[in-house]
Structures are given as structure tokens and as C-alpha cells.
Amino acid sequence: MIFDLGDVIIPIDLTAPLRNFAMLANLPEEEVKAIWKEHDIWNRYETGLIDDDNFREHVRKVLHNRTGAPESWADEVIDTAWNSVLLDLPVSRVERVRELGSRYRLFLLSNTNPVHIRQVNRMLTELHQPTLEELFERVFYSYDVKMIKPSPGIYQHVLAEAGLVAEETAFFDDNAANIQAAGALGIQAVHVQPPKTILEYTADL
User: Span of the secretion signal (predicted)?
Assistant: First the structure.
């Protein structure tokens, strides 16, 4: 079984970082969104083309410098705004993954970045739960493998590395494009759609 992270295990708000950076930069949210898209910051970071320091420096360059402020944002300020995408982590979902782990091989496949993964692991630790690397037999992060869903290559990489057969593997993801791409390879792709969660989608397993 392969699980996505955002909006499958942990709820997310993809618009929250843009709102927070807009407030920090004293710029309209739509302008920040346009800048973000123009520079492709999110994808470049999550495909491992830039590291943490490059990401933060890029944010300072394209957003902070527009304000004309005399001081640069600290790393912690940028990370806090960036991590606002992550909402409260439901313990029930983590416990369900742990239950499934006693009967199935479990893997994590996420389009993500190091700052978010460190934050999720901090949240898990504060909840007295295992880290992602302890919850799953193996984790596959887009920034590590230098590929991003829904590219077919990332699914093929996971299947090969984990020794999985597509037709015998369930994949849970909230993104329709990711589900379609996985399904095209023969994977049993399950589209996780609110208000249902993995608790309902895995109830019969």
C-alpha cells in the first residue's frame, strides 16, 4: 500500500503560505501568487532543484526585496510562513496507518520538501507518534527522487525500488491527476475525497 501525505494523512491548506507571504511582504495575495508561479518556486524546491538555503534566498529575493525593507527575513520567519500549509494532524489517521502496518507493507509517496517533512515529524513526535520514516517501510519524497507526481516515472521508481507489483498495490491520493497517472500503470488507485478520509477508505481492509 502506498499513501500520499498531504490531505491523506495530514490536512493541508495550499493557499495558506501565499497568504502569509503576502502579509509579510505587504503585497496583494494575487501578486504574490503571480510571482510564485512566474519563478516556479514550489516545483523547483519539491523536485530537489534547489535546497533549503536556495529556497529561502529565492523567497527573499523575489518577495522581501520588493518591500524595500532594510533587513532580510530570518530563516525561521520563512519556514513558519511556509509551514502554514500544514494543518492539525489527526492522531486517528496515524493510528490507522499503524494498524494497517501490522498486516500490509506500507510506503509513503509525497510531493514535498525538507522543511515540510521536518515539521510533520516534529508534529508526530509532539503527539508521541512514530516519525514518517518509522511509520512506513520506506518513504519516497519528490525532492529526493528528483521527480514529482503525476509523472509516470515516480510511480515506476517506487514500484521497482519497493519490489511491488502494480496490480497488487493500492495507492491513496487526494489529487485526481495523480490517481489517473497511477491507474494508467495498473496500480489500484483510490481517490481520497473529503469529507471521507483514509479511515473510511480503508475500513474494509
Answer: none
